[in-house]
């Protein structure tokens, strides 16, 4: 099969399959999960058996059911955060590239300072001050991560604004809106879609890490990262409990990455894109 | 001297960025609704208790003065006192910084040569077995969260094989080899994660050079593959590769936080995470500053090294 | 290497060569050619004809994605395709060497020129370091490079384009190969530089008895250096013969068209200066600066209604800068443009809708002048709707009329630019400019990215549109052939200054200044003896009373 004239390699099918199955399972969680997510079905950290396919967690709940419900939280929050990241980053990036030099240099200097530090360190700082809650986490991650998208969006838009057809529109007297939405955006879309995937992977892993550190999603809501956190002790008792949510995180990330890799290979991005922390 | 001017400007820019970040770190506390004191004591605090804490924290002076005062202290090695324990932060931080640097250095020493070597090899034999194997493996490790890699390693090397300890317990006066033994699993985790990123980016940079017209020219001069790679591709890929290495040592800075928590390793990362959950702001600021110095310092150094590798900046006539 | 060989011995013979790309595209098909020792064969063709691919095949090299799939490549009777990797390495650079079009990117930026020139002889074990360096200096001297003793210490970025191109020839000649593959070696150079490189190159390969495959699209250039010519089109041979035969008595219709196009470019004397009607655009002492650099220095001239004024100059002359300033994309530091009665505001942002409408710009590269995600209908419809505020049906009718004007079928409205050829795209660009019903159209090198026959069609179209619509053209170009065919008047620019101005006939008949004379003398003509004459004339002129130009 071909999409837009490009041959689709088998890895993309694997990635697509993983993403699709994940979406279906978490969307229809109540029908797919063998037990309700809060029901205690066995002992603490029971090993997998025919009854509980993935064993039980730290208070004896079915691991598989917890995973299915937890996926809802993990995926949804990462998607929302990625959405805002792209919205802020692309919006400001395009603005910087298509308005005047002053706006560009102010935005770029602010972004330079934010880029000078790993996101995790800034995020920890914010959480120390404001405490942790889902809205604060989404707002913090979107703001910090949008700086990375800003760089890319600005570079992509800059590459397009120097093309003669954008000059033609400008010389005709078209407004900023026309230039951004009719001339730049349609041509910037392919790399931005790949960037969305890349950002999703990063956000998804990042939130999982925060939850794992006990600073992300707080009980009673459970996501995969906090499930690893809650079950970490099982390792010392010879169990595997934290490996299942961790593997779930890895699997979804691999799925998205397989698709992103292909998108990146067919639309070569400007150098350095997505290559940052 | 063009190159000297570049180094001085770049170093100055690094210091400036560090200042800007330190302002952000310090004044971030001003984001608080109310102030630090009321946040710390909660809603039930009595006005007297608040006033005492405000005076203790010096909250009655303007923010910029407090920042300058803090900065003055930092420059003189005084990082303030912890809110929770009341002890000077510097005393707690310094031994932990040494631990973190030890772990990060251990990982870097293995990761950098391994990743750069494999990345270059993969690029030279693009599409070969090594290339495909390393790209598959690196895709996997990029997608694995650090704690997943850690737990796999713990299950295999500590629980099943029993070769290495699952907790990285270190203490003062510990011998070098005992220390190495204790930190091997965390260092392996960091190495795996960093190698994946570094390998992919090294490969991309080298490929970009390998597809340039002057490499084609070199092949058409009848030079051997080794000769072309050593004489023509690598000198030009050096700058980008140095940038890649620096960028990934930054991954190390981030990765170290999670890995220290997994292995209960007494480093700056664990200290910072603890301080965040206890909302011990001065300690968080101090840790953040340490990471900022490492991160910005690395990036500045990388830019300077990359410039030194660029003949356009270095080059002057004559040899 | 093989100096003792008989001069008429066959050096290279290619039989039934076939080169494919991807799954099914055929780049070169059933090519036969024979090249004798010391002979120069010109490979002529438009872009995509497969001439570079064929040239590289003489080294059994095919670029990424291409494969040599059939035929024999015999060098001194031995089929190179049967050689193993080591055998190919021993042949490349030693017996067959390559000169690329863009020397600037073909040199390793991190190595000195001397190291790169000596690398071949050293690595192939032909010379020691001292000998190789002496050899390089001798080549630098023969190629007239500045201070040949020390020239090799430079890095590529420290040499000019013309110097690098000559250094590239030195590098290729360093192992004294039997055969040179020259891939458009002078195309990227200005005409006044091209003549120097061409002359030195010819002298060098004649002295060394080197055979050459000379790949180019320019008949006039190849006429100076080739003994025989092979014309290629769509990967197949159209015809082959001695240079004189091809130039004077071409047998195929395609070659006849190519030759006729060149002759037209050579013989034209411009369009007789129409009586000067009202002035449309007055360029009044315009000065443009980029920082401290003065790109355009007090330039002033007039463009009349229905008139074509060509601004001619080499790279860096400021001619395009002037064009961008006229449309308000760059603001002059001093002086300005008077349009009709009004002085135009410097920036397009402060110009009125009507002022923006009346001056239109057509760009050099149609590929990046059309938004690849908009249909031709949208591309043409937008300016119509924008400037004339018409109903949707009226816009559609006007778009159809515009397409007719530029000779494109009406059903092109639904196509995307990617589905059009280069010439068709440039026609759409012309239609878009006309959509505004302009009085002045500025053409920035509009034909230089096109193949000669396509470019000729575009020039004809522009002339025809001028007759029909009475528009004026400000024609920015580096190509004097284009000037001769389209311009009433000429402005010659050098390093930002205007050095000559007048009717085309006057400028060409009696160039008023040294630079214009040098420029005119440097344009290759399609005769085999032009280069000798030109060099001679330059010598006489240099020795004469007129001061020489640095």
Report on this structure.
The complex is a heterotrimer of chains A (277), B (319) and C (550). Chain A has ten helices and two strands, in the order ββαααααααααα. Chain A is mostly helical and 277 residues long. In chain A, helix 3 crosses helix 6 (134-161) and helix 8 runs antiparallel to helix 10. The longest helix of chain A has 37 residues, at 176-212. By secondary structure, chain B is an all-alpha fold. Chain B has two domains: 2-75, no CATH class; 93-310, Orthogonal Bundle (MetI-like fold), CATH 1.10.3720.10. Chain C is α/β, with parallel strands linked by helices. Chain C has a domain at 279-509: 3-Layer(aba) Sandwich (Rossmann fold), CATH 3.40.50.300. In chain C, 40% of the residues lie in helices and 24% in strands. In chain C, strands 6-7-8-3-9-10 form a six-stranded mixed β-sheet, sandwiched between helices. Chain C has a six-stranded mixed β-sheet with strand order 16-17-18-13-19-20, with helices on both faces. Chains A and B meet through helix 5, helix 8 and helix 10 of A and helix 1, helix 6, helix 7, helix 10 and helix 11 of B.
Topology:
The complex is a heterotrimer of chains A (277), B (319) and C (550).
Chain A: E1 2-3, E2 6-7, H1 10-27, H2 29-32, H3 63-98, H4 101-115, H5 119-130, H6 134-161, H7 164-172, H8 176-212, H9 224-231, H10 243-266
Antiparallel strand pairs in A: 1-2
Chain B: H1 2-27, H2 36-41, H3 47-57, H4 63-75, H5 89-124, H6 129-143, H7 146-160, H8 176-210, H9 213-220, H10 225-262, H11 268-278, H12 281-308, H13 311-314
Helix pairs in contact in B: 1-4, 1-12, 5-6, 5-8, 5-10, 5-12, 6-8, 7-8, 7-10, 8-10, 9-10, 10-11, 10-12, 11-12
Chain C: E1 10-21, E2 25-36, E3 40-44, H1 51-57, E4 66-75, E5 78-79, H2 85-91, E6 96-99, H3 103-106, H4 113-123, H5 129-142, H6 148-151, H7 161-173, E7 179-183, H8 191-208, E8 211-216, H9 219-225, E9 228-233, E10 236-242, H10 243-248, H11 253-267, E11 279-290, E12 293-304, E13 308-312, H12 319-326, E14 334-339, E15 342-343, H13 353-358, E16 359-362, H14 366-369, H15 376-388, H16 392-405, H17 422-435, E17 440-444, H18 452-469, E18 472-477, H19 480-486, E19 489-494, E20 497-503, H20 504-509, H21 514-522, H22 530-543
Parallel strand pairs in C: 3-8, 3-9, 6-7, 7-8, 13-18, 13-19, 16-17, 17-18
Antiparallel strand pairs in C: 1-2, 1-4, 4-5, 9-10, 11-12, 11-14, 14-15, 19-20
């Amino acid at each position: 099969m071909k999409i837009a004239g490009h041959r689709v390699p088998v890895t993309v099918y694997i990635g697509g399959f993983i993403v699709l199955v994940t979406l279906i399972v978490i969307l229809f969680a109540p029908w797919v999960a063998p037990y309700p997510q809060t029901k205690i079905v066995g002992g603490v950290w029971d090993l997998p058996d025919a009854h509980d396919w993935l064993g039980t967690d730290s208070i004896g709940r079915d691991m598989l059911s917890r995973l299915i419900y937890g996926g809802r939280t993990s995926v949804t929050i990462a998607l929302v955060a990625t959405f805002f990241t792209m919205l802020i980053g692309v919006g400001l990036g395009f603005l910087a590239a298509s308005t005047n030099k002053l706006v560009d240099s102010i935005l770029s200097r602010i972004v330079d300072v934010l880029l000078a530090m790993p996101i995790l360190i800034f995020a920890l700082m914010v959480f120390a001050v404001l405490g942790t809650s889902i809205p604060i986490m989404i707002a913090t991650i979107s703001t910090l991560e949008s700086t990375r998208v800003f760089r890319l969006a600005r570079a992509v838009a800059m590459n397009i604004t120097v093309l003669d057809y954008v000059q033609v529109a400008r010389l005709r007297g078209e407004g900023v809106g026309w230039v951004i939405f009719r001339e730049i955006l349609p041509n910037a879309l392919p790399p931005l879609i790949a960037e969305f995937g890349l950002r999703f992977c990063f956000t998804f892993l990042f939130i999982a890490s925060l939850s794992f550190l006990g600073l992300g999603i707080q009980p009673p809501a459970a996501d995969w990262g906090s499930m690893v956190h809650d079950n970490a002790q099982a390792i010392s008792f010879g169990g595997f409990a934290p490996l299942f949510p961790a593997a779930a995180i890895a699997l979804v990330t691999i799925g998205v990455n397989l698709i992103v890799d292909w998108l990146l290979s067919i639309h070569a991005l400007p150098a350095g894109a997505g290559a940052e922390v | 001297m063009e190159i000297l001017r570049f180094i001085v400007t770049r170093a100055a820019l690094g210091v400036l960025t560090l200042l800007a970040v330190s302002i952000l770190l310090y004044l971030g506390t001003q984001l608080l609704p109310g102030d630090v004191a009321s946040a710390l004591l909660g809603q039930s605090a009595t006005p007297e208790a608040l006033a005492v804490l405000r005076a203790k924290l010096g909250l009655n002076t303007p923010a910029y003065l407090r920042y300058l005062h803090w900065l003055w202290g930092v420059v003189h090695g005084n990082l303030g006192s912890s809110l929770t324990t009341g002890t000077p932060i510097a005393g707690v931080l310094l031994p932990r910084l040494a631990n973190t640097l030890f772990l990060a250095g251990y990982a870097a020493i293995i990761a950098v040569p391994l990743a750069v070597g494999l990345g270059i090899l993969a690029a030279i034999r693009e599409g070969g077995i090594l290339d495909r194997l390393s790209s598959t493996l690196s895709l996997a490790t990029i997608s694995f969260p650090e704690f997943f890699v850690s737990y796999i390693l713990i299950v295999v090397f500590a629980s099943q094989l029993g070769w290495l300890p699952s907790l990285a317990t270190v203490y003062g006066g510990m011998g070098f080899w005992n220390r190495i033994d204790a930190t091997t699993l965390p260092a392996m985790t960091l190495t795996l994660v960093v190698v994946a990123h570094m390998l992919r980016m090294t490969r991309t940079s080298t490929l970009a050079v390998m597809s340039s017209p002057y490499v084609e020219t070199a092949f058409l001069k009848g030079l051997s593959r080794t000769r072309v790679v050593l004489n023509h591709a690598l000198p030009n890929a050096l700058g980008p590769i140095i940038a890649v290495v620096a960028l990934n040592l930054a991954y190390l800075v981030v990765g170290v936080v999670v890995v220290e928590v997994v292995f209960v390793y007494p480093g700056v990362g664990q200290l910072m995470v603890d301080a965040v959950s206890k909302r011990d702001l001065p300690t968080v600021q101090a840790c953040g500053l340490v990471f900022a110095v490492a991160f910005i310092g690395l990036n500045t150094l990388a830019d300077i090294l990359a410039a030194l590798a660029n003949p356009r900046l270095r080059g002057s006539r004559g040899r | 290497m093989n100096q003792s060989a008989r001069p008429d011995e066959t050096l290279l013979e290619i039989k039934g060569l076939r080169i494919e790309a991807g799954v099914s595209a055929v780049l070169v098909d059933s090519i036969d050619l024979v090249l004798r020792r010391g002979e120069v064969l010109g490979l002529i063709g438009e872009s995509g004809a497969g001439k570079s691919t064929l040239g590289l095949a003489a080294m059994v090299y095919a670029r990424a994605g291409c494969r040599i799939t059939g035929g024999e490549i015999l060098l001194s009777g031995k089929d190179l395709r049967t050689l193993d990797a080591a055998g190919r390495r021993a042949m490349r650079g030693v017996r067959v060497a390559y000169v690329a079009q863009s020397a600037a990117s073909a040199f390793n930026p991190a190595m000195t020129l001397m190291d790169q020139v000596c690398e071949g002889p050293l690595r192939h074990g032909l010379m020691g370091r001292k000998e190789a360096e002496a050899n390089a200096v001798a080549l630098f001297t023969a190629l007239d490079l500045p201070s040949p003793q020390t020239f090799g210490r430079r890095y590529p970025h420290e040499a000019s384009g013309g110097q690098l191109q000559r250094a590239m020839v030195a590098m290729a000649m360093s192992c004294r190969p039997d055969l040179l593959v020259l891939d458009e070696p002078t195309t990227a150079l200005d005409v006044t530089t091209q003549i120097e490189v061409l002359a030195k190159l010819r002298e060098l390969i004649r002295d060394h008895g080197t055979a050459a495959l000379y790949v180019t699209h320019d008949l006039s250039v190849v006429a100076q250096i080739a003994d025989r010519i092979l014309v290629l089109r769509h990967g197949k041979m159209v015809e082959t013969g001695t240079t004189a035969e091809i130039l004077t008595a071409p047998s195929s219709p395609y070659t006849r068209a190519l030759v006729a196009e060149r002759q037209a470019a050579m013989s034209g004397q411009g369009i007789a200066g129409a009586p000067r009607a009202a002035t449309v655009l007055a360029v009044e002492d315009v000065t443009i600066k980029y920082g401290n650099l003065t790109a355009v220095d007090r330039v002033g001239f007039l463009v009349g209604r229905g008139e074509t004024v060509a601004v001619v100059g080499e790279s860096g002359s400021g001619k395009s800068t002037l064009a961008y300033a006229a449309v308000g994309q760059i603001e002059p530091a001093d002086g300005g443009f008077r349009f009709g009665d009004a002085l135009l505001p410097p920036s397009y942002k402060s110009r009125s809708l009507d002022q923006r409408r009346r001056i239109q710009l057509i760009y050099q590269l149609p590929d990046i002048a059309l938004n690849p995600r908009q249909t031709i209908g949208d591309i043409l419809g937008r300016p119509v709707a924008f400037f004339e505020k018409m109903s949707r049906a009226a816009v559609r009718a006007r778009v159809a009329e515009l397409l007719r004007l530029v000779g494109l079928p009406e059903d092109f409205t639904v196509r995307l630019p990617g589905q059009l050829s280069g010439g068709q795209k440039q026609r759409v660009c012309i239609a878009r400019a006309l959509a505004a019903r302009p009085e002045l159209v500025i053409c920035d090198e509009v034909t230089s990215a096109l193949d000669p026959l396509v470019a000729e069609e575009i020039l004809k179209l522009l002339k025809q549109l001028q007759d029909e619509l009475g528009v004026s053209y400000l024609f920015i170009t580096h190509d004097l052939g284009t000037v001769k065919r389209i311009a009433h008047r000429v402005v010659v620019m050098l390093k930002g200054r205007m050095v000559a101005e007048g009717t085309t006939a006057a400028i060409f008949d009696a160039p008023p200044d040294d630079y214009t004379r040098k420029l005119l003398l440097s344009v290759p003509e399609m005769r085999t003896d032009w280069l000798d004459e030109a060099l001679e004339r330059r010598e006489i002129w240099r020795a004469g009373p007129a001061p020489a130009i640095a």
